[in-house]
Every structure is written in C-alpha cells, then in structure tokens.
Amino acid sequence: MKDDLEVEIRDALRVRAQAVTATDLRRTDDGRDHPTRRNVLAALAAAAAVAALAVGIGVVVWPSSDKGPTPQPATGGAGVIGVKWQFEHGIQGTTTFTSPSGRVSIAFYREGKFGADDGINYLGGPYVATADGLRIGPAGSTLVGYAGHDPNVLATQIAFGALTGGRAPVSAKFNDQGELVLSGPGYSLWFRNAGPSVAPSESASFTKTPGPTR
Amino acid sequence: MRDADWTLLYDEHYLRLVRLALNLVDDLDSAEDVVQDVFAAVQRKPTPADPLPYLRTAVINRARSVLRRRRVVRAFGARASVVDFADPADEDVLRADRRSRILAAIAQLPTRQKEVVVLRYYEDLRVAEIAAALGISAAAVSTSLARALDALKEIDR
Prior knowledge:
The structure holds 2 protein chains of 2 kinds.
Chain A: H1 2-18, H2 37-55, E1 72-73, E2 83-92, E3 95-98, E4 105-108, E5 113-117, E6 122-130, E7 133-136, E8 140-141, E9 143-145, H3 151-163, E10 170-174, E11 180-184, E12 187-196, E13 210-213
Parallel strand pairs in A: 9-13
Antiparallel strand pairs in A: 1-10, 2-3, 2-4, 2-12, 4-5, 5-6, 6-7, 6-8, 7-10, 10-11, 11-12
Chain B: H1 3-25, H2 28-42, H3 51-74, E1 83-84, H4 93-108, H5 111-121, H6 127-134, H7 138-153
C-alpha cells in the first residue's frame, strides 16, 4: 500500500517534470526568449478554437484502461441534466488547472438551456443531449474583463469558452467517484454534483453586456 | 570561479532546476522565475566546489518565498495551483486523473513536507542529503516524510 503510493508519487512528479522540455522554456540555448505563459495560454485558446473548427463533428473517445473501472457514459444526458455541477479541475493541452473559486459551475436545465459561471463571466445558451454526451452552446456571455494573472482563472475561462462554443460534441462521462467528466477537443473538465439545478427566471437571460474590468 | 562559470552552470542545470522548481511551486512560469532569480542572485558570488546541491538549496529557498507569497494571495480569494503533465490525449485519462489528484494533494502539504517529498521522490535524494539541502536534521526529514505519506494516503479515502 505504502509502496504503491510511493511509486505513484514518484510517477506523478516525474511525468509532470519531464513534460517540460527546453522548447517550453523562455530561455533556450539560442539565447532567445520564448513566449511567457500568458501568451502560451492565449495561443492555446486560439489553437483550441482552430482545433474545434477543424474537427467539426469530432468526438473524443475515452481511452481504454487496464486499471480501474471504466467511466460510464451519460447517454442522452442521463444524470447530467437537472443538476448543478461545480467545477473541480481540468486539463487543457498540457496544463492542468484547478477551480479558481467555488462559484465556477455549470447547470443543465430541463428546458434545454444551460447556465455557467466561469469565475468571471456568466454564460448561457442552449444544449442538446447526444448519444454519449452533449452539444453545449453556442453560449452568450457577460463581458466582464479580467486584468489579473492567476493562471487558474485564465485557463478556466479558456476551457469554459471551448466547452460552451457549440462547435463540437462534448463527451460526458462519470468516473468511479461520481464526478462528471466533460471532454472535448483538447480539454477535459471534472465536476462534482452540487445539487439540483434551479432554472433561472425568464428575466435572467444572458446578453452580451459590457461590464467593468475586474 | 569567474562569472563565465555561472553561465556554464546555467546552461547545464537550468532545465533540471526548472523541473525541480515546478514540482515545488506547481506552475512553469513561477518555476522559471524561481530559477532565474536564483542565477541572478548568485552570479556575482564565487561558485562553490559542488554547485548542484548549492543551486538546489537556493531553488528550494526561493520556491519557499513564492509559496509564502501565494498563501497571502490565496487569503484574498485565489485558490490552488497549476500543475502540468503529459498530454492526456496520449494517455489513459484515468491515470492522468490519478496523477492530478496526487499532485493536487502534494500541493496542499505544508511546505516542509512538500519539499521533503519532492526531494525524496523526484530528486531521489537520501535522507541525509535531504537534511543537508534543507538544513534540518535527518530525524526531522524522516518525521516530515512519514507525515506527508500519511496525509497523501487520504487521497483514497
């Protein structure tokens, strides 16, 4: 038990460290600076958008596993709809990030509408249940700016933008801990059940309204 | 040693030290800042006979400052950390999930325990070497390691 844990710790630390290569660094042997991480995040967002457009109808297939239980697909949105899902952590490209605040969540209402909070803006729009998940969006959004540097905030905004863009199907599966895993081109996001979703009133529509910079 | 020797050490150890710093501060941008700050601070100093342990300790100390600052920031609302690993598209997502949980749990450890875990399991240092790097006793290293492993076992509960 302890030995297994030690092996897993060693593996996790090494895999993360070895994912960093000389080309990821700002400074390389040629003496030139590479883009900062903020620029990389912006590039990731652009790449995700291009990938989503290029993939079009692509569906992310959950890799097979020889360890642990098989994640269960949420066929037709079963178990997903009517629930508010609080964001836990995600992977976008090579970056893993965690929820920057407890407010980051997405809720699927029974009327085919969803509402989400990416920590800075509120998003909302239609969704359609598919054979192995959902097609979410395209979303409308409030337009609050974020002038900070927290990489979790930046990555979460980018990931929610990709998730709710409506450009590609999103696979929805439950892992063995009951978490909802939403995956699309280049990202996977983990959510925990935060209780039933309560549909917003008709007046709580989402419009593209400029807001203050945070 | 002359300044030029620090340049050689920079070329030789930069990536390795960034990877160590990444495991201590959990995001690449901060990790590079840590290592660059270390080299900026030492460039006018004579190089020690055995520079790698010296640089490693300097990185640990600088990373500790970053974590201390980050704790203050978190007190005002920000939370958690960024961790990087291989592209999940090429991996078993369940294993990536497990790694993510382990790294998140390590990130939550008290600073001393986290340092001990990283030096033991990433740098593969012996207890005596960890004690020398951190400037603490071997007994303190063993105690911190045991407590860290106890805390990390909670991942499965």
